[in-house]
Amino acid sequence: MSLQQLDGSSFSTGMASFFDQSESLQGPTSKIWVRIEPDSLGQAVLAQVDTGAAWSILDADIAEALDLFDDQGEIVPISTRAGSFKFRLKNIPVQILAQQGDSLLVNAIVAVERGWRYGNFLGYTGFLERVKFAVDPASNLFYFGPG
């Protein structure tokens, strides 16, 4: 199940199927969605893996459920496909959920904004930079482990 590095040590500690389709799209896309559980939400949600995104973003409904809308945290402007927003950065634990092996808990920095209703994204700074990951597109598998 786990990937190996050249020296024989383990590269990944967990593996899960990823999704490259959604109900709103016709057929496969070049986008990858994985199951995560932000903080103590108590349920899995889908997040798009976006290595080109500066920050990870949580949908406003998820941020509200986690009580993340307060006046704490740095404000950063982020330009998105839906326009420009002023997000607030929050430090929260987020798990990447494994189907085999171990789920991975990441001490993540996520961006939240009340007007953001465009889904959850895993960006590089504060999240993906802390994770080793690999994608097997032939079998839709996402491998991951601590960075």
Describe the protein:
The chain has one helix and eleven strands. It is mostly beta strands and 147 residues long. It has a single domain, classed as Cathepsin D, subunit A, domain 1 (Beta Barrel). The strands form two sheets. Strands 2, 3, 4, 5, 6, 8 and 9 form a seven-stranded mixed β-sheet that branches. The chain has a four-stranded antiparallel β-sheet with strand order 7-1-11-10, with no helix packed on it. Strand 10 and strand 11 form a beta hairpin. The longest helix has 6 residues. It comes from Nitrospira defluvii.
Q: What is the count of distinct domains?
A: 1
What is the approximate shape? globular
Q: How big is the Rg?
A: 15 Å
Percentage of residues in helical conformation: under 10%
N-to-C SSE string, H for helix and E for strand: EEEEHEEEEEEE
**Main sheet record:** 7 strands, mixed
Keyphrases for this structure?
seven-stranded mixed β-sheet, 147 residues, Cathepsin D, subunit A, domain 1, four-stranded antiparallel β-sheet
Short structural summary:
4% of the residues lie in helices and 43% in strands.
Strand and helix layout:
Layout: E1 14-17, E2 32-38, E3 45-49, E4 56-57, H1 60-65, E5 75-80, E6 83-96, E7 100-101, E8 104-112, E9 121-122, E10 131-136, E11 141-146
Parallel strand pairs: 3-9, 4-8
Antiparallel strand pairs: 1-7, 1-11, 2-3, 2-6, 5-6, 6-8, 10-11
